[in-house]
Amino acid sequence: MSELPISKGERTPWIKFRRCLWYVAALIMVGTLVIYSSVFQESWSLNPRTSTPNSSTSHDSVPPLVDEYTVAYPHEYHFILDELNRCREESPFLVLMIPVAPHNREARHMIRSTWGNVTMVQGKVVSHYFILGQSREENGAETIEEQLLRESRDHRDILQSDFLDSYHNLTIKTMLMFEWLSTHCPQTSYAMKVDSDTFLNVHNLVGMLLKAPQHLYMTGIVVRFAPVLRDQNSKWFLPFSTFPESVYPTYAIGLGYVFSLDLTRKILEAAQHVRALYIEDVYVGLCMKHLGIPLTDPPRNDMFMIWKPSDTGNCYWTSVITTLLHSSNQLLDVWKSYQIQAQSGC
Ligand SMILES: *[C@@H]1O[C@H](CO)[C@@H](O)[C@H](O)[C@H]1NC(C)=O
Ligand SMILES: *[C@@H]1O[C@H](CO)[C@@H](O)[C@H](O)[C@H]1NC(C)=O
Ligand SMILES: *[C@@H]1O[C@H](CO)[C@@H](O)[C@H](O)[C@H]1NC(C)=O
């Protein structure tokens, strides 16, 4: 069929039809692009081999991979016990954030009477908050919630949100910590996520931070190329279907990592795109990888310690920043040793 000379403005039915076809084709192309980009932006673990085996759940949109190794985040949780203005008013240089189970009053008590009671170092204000979810248990006549309310009034250091507090939900707790810091502490330079069963030398921590980078900074025990645990009996088991890579991203071990406050917003942005795994420190590492921000090793590799050496004489406690203890019950004794070492000119 030869081209008919058509004057401008004239539309034959055939041209109209072609135009219509063109629109349909364009629409299909755009639609495909939109679907593809949403699939690939979501994260690596949405490829077909890792999607949920239950096909009844797959409709037009890609369903989130929900299994026992992921957690419900992002999601809008609410704080039941909060400190709305305290951080803004005190403008601490450093905030210590301590995840703790609701019933673990003992650990909170130990921390308040040891490193949690250090509130000023080299003229810099330091404060601490405990971060909790909700408990399932009831404790005798007085519920845990009532105890917590009283504890919160007495100490003003309790942040409790409305998710179920459990080991598998620690990532939710960590992400709520970032949310809380980013909205409540506008003048704060650094924060540390620190477990309740650790010794913390706040003086050395502040000393290190006064010389540290001020932006996009995270440090602690930085682990690189750690193999993913595929043994089902491991506490940190991850199946291939949830996490297909063979090594974890570079991450800082959860017992104690430090970061500049500008990272909180960045990590929360990344969390919109990276599926939340139950292993909280690895998940933060995944967010950092997504952001392309490298972690920083501490100035010395004997500052953040996982194991307490058998010999803690020789100024051990005055030279470290953190050491993991067997339980927070050890904290009072260790704190005494630390004070003795500090007073003996270590
Ligand atoms: C999909 O999962 C639901 C709930 O987990 C179950 O009731 C249903 O039988 C499953 N369907 C298929 C096709 O496996
Ligand atoms: C905290 O330290 C102050 C001294 O700086 C002391 O008076 C107070 O008793 C301490 N509080 C606890 C709970 O140990
Ligand atoms: C985690 O928290 C969510 C929200 O409260 C809850 O629905 C879920 O059951 C919790 N998961 C575990 C394993 O505790």
TrEMBL record:
Principal location class: Golgi
UniProt cross-references to InterPro entries, sorted A to Z: Glyco_trans_31 (IPR002659)
A Pfam family hit: Galactosyl_T
Membrane disposition: Single-pass type II membrane protein
Keyword set includes Thylakoid: no
Pathway participation: Protein modification; protein glycosylation
GO biological process: lipid metabolic process; protein O-linked glycosylation
Entry protein name: Hexosyltransferase
The species this protein was found in: Pundamilia nyererei
Gene assigned in the entry: LOC102203850
